User: What shape does this take?
Amino acid sequence: MEHITPIKEIDSIKDDFTIKVRIIHLWTQKSKFNAKETYSIEMILMDEEGRKIHASCVKKWFPKFKRYLKEDSSIYVKKPNVAPNTLNFKFADPERKLNFYHDTTVKECENFSGSAHGFDFVDFNTIVSNNIWNIIGHIFEYGRMDTSEEDKSKHKMLLHLQDIEDTKLKVTLWGHNAYYMTEFLANNNSLAPVVVIVQFARVKFINGRPFSSTYFDVSRLFINNDIDEITSYKNKLVSENGQQLSSSGIKMIASKQNTEHDDFLKNHMFSNIDDLFEPLEEKTVIIVGTVKGIRQNIRWYYLACSNCYKSAKEKESSTDKVDGSHEVAEIVTYECSNPNCKNIKISVIPRFKIPLRVQDNTGTLTLTLFDQEAKKLFKYTAKELYDKNKKLGISLDLYPMELKVVVDKKLAIKIDITSYNVDNKSNIYGLARLTENANIIDELEKKNLNSQPDNSDSFIIGSSDIASQETKVVKDSFSHTGENLTPCARDNSTATSPTKLFSTPTELKRNLATCIDLDEMENLSTSKTPRLSPPDEQPIPLLVPKKEK
Assistant: This one.
């Protein structure tokens, strides 16, 4: 019997060693270039001591290894290649991972004596940092499946879990895990409580509170499985409560967010971009526009407090060097701008704040895309792009090439016009919600087409003095131009509004330019350019001088 190397003793200097492990989780990774093609098989391996390490086998070696690689099976692996673990979240050995390649050999193992799953549970009230954890609890509330995204991997479901100590934790299940839970709850009417284990759950802190979620295909979900850990939990739960808990008593969480269909097609007024240049009242509107580009000289990200996601400001401080030289070392720390953030020492994480130029047939406007909605458009997080540029030595002020995928996309966009916009005549807006759903965009464009006035020459919509009279078409005023005059704007004001003359598109555009010069906005320097701030900052008012024609 050859010598078995424990995972803790794996060394990149040595290449001839053998490990005895159990595959406690296995999933496939899709190709970045073809979503239908499998690029690799990913595994979490555990040895008999309970230590874990991430391993990969790329497609070219499938014929050699695939028949041995099955979840919950045990294997011997000889001469795997050691590589650094570069993943953002470490769910096994934080420093190393293993790759199977041509010199590697694998054979079955029939006498593995370690744990079956390698759970290392954490109590909900002892979770103290952003990390990957194993959690166990029973469901007391759950939400409906959110299927607003076309990509099924982005469908999600919210659970409220409770542990033995009655501490509660919110857990979001994504993709196939959400469907697994939905099917289970629909078909299970037993008297037993619904006990859930999320292995390799990602935990993040927001405003000082932990929130958990499944992490892509890395997380593994167990629901009332016949395993020792769930049986033991149920027994403790019964002894603590003195009675059985029924799955039929689980509550449905009342939905706070409207469905995508209702939010875009039923609940809010459709608007054109030219209606947003001078906001007159607080309201929420829907527009349809095409992304023409990204504004330059404005950063595409901001550094956010990892605790509450408000912006964090860099500050310099000094400390004595530890080498005994009595010299002072300058160190960079960050301070959260949120006074309610309880973390004294914080870390920062880059988050998206992308100024998009969006255009419809009435004009072009800058709309700021923040992290939550940006996830719908990009394959990468802001942190991944930030780290990549930094590693390659590319200026962080330059837009990553990966962001260009948004250009020429047609989107339906929800915009909140706030009291700040109205009071300051500011047309600095963020994207409250967006969708690429073609059916929703088509419906919105049809509604807009049907709401426009019939083609005619220039016309007057009058004040109360002429409100009862028939709308009068005026042709004489512009007959000298020789242009075919058509209505180019809509008036939704009441009968008491002043008389308005709607002239040719050319003249309307010229008049609009006296108030807002979009070209001038583009040429303003960074220090003078208004920008939409992260949620904790007040936006800078837009002040653009009128041009004399």
In short: Residues 228-241 form the longest helix (14 residues). The chain has a mean pLDDT of 79. Residues 7 and 258 are 49 Å apart (CA to CA).
